[in-house]
Amino acid sequence: MPPTPPSRPATSFDRRRTTAIELDGVTFGYDRTRNVLSGITMTIPRGQVVAIMGGSGCGKTTILRLIGGQLRPRAGRIMVAGQSVPDLDRDGLYALRREVGMLFQFGALFTDLSVFENVAFPLREHTDLSEDMISDLVLMKLNGVGLRGAAQVMPSALSGGMARRVALARAIALDPMLVMYDEPFAGLDPISLGIVGQLIRKLNDALGVTSVVVTHDVYESLKIVDYLYFVSEGRIVAQGTPEEVRASTDPFVRQFVDGQADGPVPFHVAAAPLEASFGVHAGR
Amino acid sequence: MPAASAIVDGLRRVGGGTRRAIARMGFAARFAFAVLMHSPEGLKRIRLTLREIYFSGVLSLVIILVSGLFVGMVLALQGYDVLQRYGASESLGVLVSLSLVRELGPVVAGLLFASRAGSAITAEIGLMKATEQLSAMEMMAVDPLARVVAPRFWGGVISMPLLAALFSTLGIYGAYLVGVRLIGIDAGAFWGNMQSVVDFRRDIVNGIIKSGVFGLIVSLIAVFEGYDAAPTAEGVSGATTRTVVGSSLAILAADFVLTVFMFRGVGVV
Question: Which end of chain A has fewer CB atoms < 10 Å from its terminal CB, N or C?
């Protein structure tokens, strides 16, 4: 009689799939009147760093929340490591999230815990490791982001760039298969910006993870990513490798890359005609 | 017809407001149920609950003890002024202890607890939401209801009866200082009358039940308002205000209802 195979967990994620994330025709709205995202389709291969770019409020962060299962799409398919995220129950979602690290815009460090305890948090919650092992792992992760010396500091004493690096160490504490970055460059000085950018690339390659970076920092992204998607008004309007983006003549890409005030994204928001606003009428 | 249109608009606003209020109450009820369901998971992290008992209970001690002492002293002065007109100044201990144990202890301690600890709980959870700490926790597969909300809720529920008991104790001691030490009422009469009139089951247990109910009310309102706060500075400030106002009104309303049921048959109701 053949040996009984070990029972598999209810939800399993295939870390070796060539496609880490697949979005197909994803539509989402916070209320019934307006769609924030319409028909988003993208494929993110395993091991790559992919940027999702677009102006503020275009729905970039919403895409991350849909991938992480914090929101459910109105229509479309979201697959992460072979599992349909909207179809996962609570246990399945939590199993997914143990495989996913996320870096929030301003770090979202727990302000009542030290840097060390912040990084140790996921290890304490999800593993039965000994205190010595946790200490070694935390210091290794902090060393990886250059902050081993700040282990006992409270988050309130950190600069924005350091807080982002601690959050990065926390995001990779459980050795995830996927790391999502929500505006990792926002509000950083040029040195911190370069450090965070390089860390994203190096950690991605060293740990063999897949990285999704939501950002509007076009120059930093072009240096570190493998592929870019441009999102505007809830739709993907352009995509390509950094070389293709640099050479692109697409008006939206050019406006975004060159930082032009006016273009496909208009300078003025929709408003009544100028004459009506200022009370000027023809013939007067 | 502008007048008709204004009436329709007014009715629409009233209807919309009522519908939103009912929806929020429904959400609050579901939230309370979820907190109770997550409580066993939260209480497993007993150190977190003990930490919250420290923040809600121990750090509220100064305001509770000082207020209790002064309320007791003022009660003794006012009580003596009335009782001595009827030659019943030896009943001062009874007056003060019944007032404190039955009413003032639970109610005033509850109001102070709502202002000191309830507002702090709301502000803390609201700011954790505004700074995405709750979202970060969710994305790390840790349920904020079990890790953040349940320990704060039970920390408040456990602290409140203890604080009310200390409030009443210090109040009675304050009355002793004024009545016996300052005014000169006989200490034997002060304590003896108190001992013979105050009933453990009817007075003390009912007072503890009241303070437990107020602890539940304040803690639930505080964690709900924090969790439901808009993630902005204005949202957190509004939620904190709603916690203090809502808890205070709820304590007074619940006190009346509880008093009606608890002291039926004492000759009033």
Answer: N
CATH number at residue A209: 3.40.50.300
Residues B135, A108: C-beta atoms closer than 8 Å: yes
pLDDT of residue A189: 83
Question: Which tokens sit at B130?
Answer: 């505004």
**Residue A131, domain extent:** 19-265
Pairing assessment for the beta strands A227-232 and A235-240 based on DSSP bridges = antiparallel
Q: Show the low-confidence residues of chain A (pLDDT under 50).
A: 1-10
Residue in chain B closest to A91 (alpha carbons) equals: B141
**How many CB atoms are closer than 10 A to CB A3?**
5
- In chain B, residues with a C-beta closer than 8 Å to the C-beta of A64 are none
**Domain count across chain A:** 1
The answer to whether the CB of A64 falls within 8 A of the CB of A180 is: yes
Distance separating alpha carbons of residues B136 and A252, to the nearest angstrom = 33
Instruction: Give tens-digit pLDDT for B67-124.
Output: 999 999 999 999 999 999 999 998 999 999 999 999 999 999 999 999 999 999 999 9
What residues of chain A lie within 8 A of the CB of B135, using their CB?
A: 70, 104, 108
Q: Does A127 touch chain B (CB under 8 A)?
A: no
Taking Cα atoms as reference points, which of B52, B200, B166 lies closest to residue B120?
Answer: B52
Q: Which residues does residue A44 pair with via DSSP β-bridges, in sequence order?
A: A21
ipTM: 0.79
Asked if B140 lies within 8 A of A68 by C-beta distance, the reply is no
pTM: 0.84
Burial A36-72 (b: 16+ CB within 10 A, else e): bbbebebebebbebbbbbbeeebbbbbbbbbbbbbbe
Residues B3, B7, B8, CA angle at the centre, nearest 5°? Answer: 115
Successive 10-residue mean pLDDT values, chain B, 269 residues: 83 94 94 94 88 95 97 96 92 95 96 96 96 92 93 96 97 97 94 94 94 97 96 95 97 96 66
Instruction: For chain A, give the mean pLDDT.
Output: 86
Residue among A102, A125, A126 whose CB faces B139 most closely:
A102
Shortest distance, CA B186 to any CA of chain A (angstroms) = 52
Chain-chain contact of B131 with A108 (C-beta, under 8 angstroms) = yes
Residues A232 and A252: beta-carbon distance below 8 Å: yes
- H or E stretch covering B244: helix B233-262
Look at strands A210-215 and A49-53 and give their pairing: parallel
- Does some domain include residue A131? yes
Q: Do B133 and A110 touch (CB under 8 A)?
A: yes
Query: What is the residue extent of each domain of chain B?
Result: 2-262
How many C-beta neighbours within 10 Å does residue B253 have?
11
- Nearest-Cα residue of chain A relative to residue B130: A108
Asked whether residue A77 is domain-assigned, the answer is yes
